[in-house]
Amino acid sequence: MTMAQGAHNTARWLVLAAGGCAALSAGALASLAARSQDGWLVAAVTDRVFVMSAAVFAVSLILGVVLASALWQAGRPMRQVRPVFASLRRGRPVFALRRFGKDERGAAIVEFALVLPFLLMLALLMAQSALLMVGNVVVHYAAHCAVRTAVVAAPLDLADSGAPRNVVPEFGVKYSTIRESALWAVTPISCGSRMVPAAACDDIQRGIEFHWASNNLSRPRWLDIYGSLPHRVQYAADNTTVTVRPPADGYEFAEREDIIVDVSHVFYMGVPYAGRLLSALMGQDGRSLSAPEGSYGVVLRATSRLPNEGPQDFIDIERFAGWR
Q1: What CA–CA distance (Å, rounded) separates 170 from 244?
Q2: Assuming Cys at both sites, which of 6, 45, 182, 305 could form a disulfide with 70, CB separation 3.0 to 4.6 Å?
Q3: Which tens digits make up the pLDDT trace of 49-96?
Q4: Which residues pair with 286 in a beta bridge?
Q5: Nearest one of 71, 234, 226, 245 to 175, comparing CA atoms
């Protein structure tokens, strides 16, 4: 059985399997989005980058299964053909040559050698597109973390440092706190290669060590100074931009006015070949990175907003049923 015949025999159940996987994935995403109270997850899974990455993943999966199934069908035992030389010895050379043309032995090896590079490339595309989808969700979560910090930091009265109530200077204590919230969120998806300069994050490591020790847990090995944490922290700081949009009057946020925070992060495409291909597919959002040298990235953008709560100078007295 040839590769084309194997693909034809498996086409029907592949369509059903792909439809079932798509339905399950859509149901899972809808369930997660419904649990997102502030809508950031809905924005993440409907973003252009997420949709394009999901399409690349689905197409690569279907093509990979089709090719793998066709190879499996081609590798099944074939009809035995009488050796050609036996017919030649009987004095029937024309009949022997006709049977030689119908002999399919060895075709599976040739087909496997031809299809294997395409299977490997599809596997790399699936891995990189899945990582890109995760990165897009994380960047949207980073924007959500930043705006949650903004609605808490904006009402603080820090007039001594040049940031009175409901005022967020472009480069001040409040802005630094908002930016660090986003950086912490994108650090896990940042590049941890040693080709990236290492940040001085001894205080961060000691804080994490204290947290683990307080919970009677052994010190994780990835906290080692030779691990990836210092490089991830530096990559996040160099490749993440956090912008707090100015208020309506240009200076001070009013109570209940929406605070809007934009976050952009250059996501590291670390899968060989597939990273460069997807980076080119994203058009203007594709980037060529200097560290690590020769690598590629994709700019992921997210925007989140929450209403300014204003100064909280009062305490609500809660009363429950049954209290007298």
Answers
A1: 8
A2: 6
A3: 999 999 999 999 888 888 887 777 665 554 444 454 454 445 555 444
A4: 298
A5: 245
Using CA atoms, how far apart are residues 111 and 210, in angstroms rounded to an integer? Answer: 57
CA distance 185 to 146: 9
Amino acid at residue number 57: F
Q: How is residue 111 written in tokens?
A: 């087909």
Handedness of CA 252, 257, 31, 16 (dihedral sign): negative
Structure tokens at 65: 């299964």
For residue 166, the one-letter residue type is N
86-139 pLDDT, tens per residue?
544 455 554 444 554 555 556 667 777 788 889 999 999 999 999 999 999 999
Q: Which two tokens stand for residue 120?
A: 């490997």
Q: Is 314 helix (H, G, I), strand (E, B) or coil?
A: coil
Tokens of 236: 């996040």
